[in-house]
Amino acid sequence: MPTVYDLVYLTASLPLLALLGYRYAFRRKYHESLKGMLGRRMPRPVAPASDGKRPLVFWVHSVSVGEVVAAQGVIREIRATWPDSRIYASTITETGQAHARRILSPLVDEIFYYPLDLSWIVRRFLDHIQPDVYIMMETELWPNLLMQCRRMGVRVLMMNGKLSERSYRMYRQFRFFFAPVLSGIDAFCMQTRLDAARMKELSRQEDRIFVTGNCKFDAVPNPLDPQARAALAARWGLDLNHPIVVVGSTHPGEDEIVAQAAVALKGEFPDLTWLVAPRHVERADAVCRIFTDAGLSVSRASQPTTKRPNVLLLDVMGELASAYSLATVAVVCGSFVPIGGHNLLEPAVYGVPVLYGPHMHKQPELLRFFRESGGGVQLEGRELGPTIWRLLKDADERQRLGKRAAETIELNRGSAQRHLHVLQKVVGSVEGKRQK
Questions:
Q1: For 156-176, how does the pLDDT look when each residue is reduced to its tens digit (9 = 90+)?
Q2: Which domains does the chain have, with CATH numbers?
């Protein structure tokens, strides 16, 4: 029988069908994910353990790339603590799915697309997987799935939870809609005290709310060793004796800002290479035109040339974290236009100055840490060229900022362990129930 949430979804979805159909037909969106979300590609069911008993089953859900990165540290702790358990991982976006397959495959048993949140679809997934514990990374409130978990006795945790001011206002306005969902969550592991206070006000579940920090600090990979770094530079035809500015995750409107800065610095730094990674690889052709129209020579990572270009376009997926190892200065985008910012930690681990724009509202905790440590520089788009000029001229300043950036990570690791402590209490109740 349809739920009230089904009726809301179906009513609200009508205006979106034309847009979704256009993206599916003409922009090749959702061709892979839609089949999974509708349940046409189900994950394999749980097999019994070697002793014939059913193992603990965890389902960890991440929306996209950022949440997958945060989930990695938590999943490592789960695998180490319950080595015989079965771990399922899901994503919504296709980029998140590709990243999950790349970094989570050694840790989990199955990776699949999250079901469309209609009651008959989520029931099918839950009956198929039969999780003991469902973990949502950040604030992923899908009412039908969470209500079905509650009915089936599945323990539910929110991990790396956060509530921006905008999200908080929205959830508060529609509290009547989300109150039954929030009441079924066993533990809320929130990034900051402010996030925890907001969740307490929304959920009225004060005894279930914990401040555990940001898992992304624990998910940062170890830096590439010198040999791997040199091999990467050689593969792309880059000379590590010359400066390289790595620009990560650009969105429309930001490539023009970078092109302007590159043109301004070209005369004084003729050996400077800009390594630019669009957030969405399908924009590669458009981004290439922006730089060539600005009078800059461009090469592509997928087809590197022997001649050193002004701009190397990173048009392959999964290489940005490693590409930051080549940086003299790093720029994290999604922050010079109102996107909300991306991961500052991937470049910071290499001890290089990290620059980012004014729009970091989706990364409030990372922003706070970097502001307090002095490990990054927040600036307007028009300041990008002059700031990079100054840093390329001042090696001492680069070293100072880079050292503080690396220290920001080292001083804040340990969030995954704090999440684990909460999870152990919840799993203890599951195991206790099994023994009765």
A1: 999 999 998 888 999 999 988
A2: 22-45+53-214+414-435 (3.40.50.11720), 226-410 (3.40.50.2000)
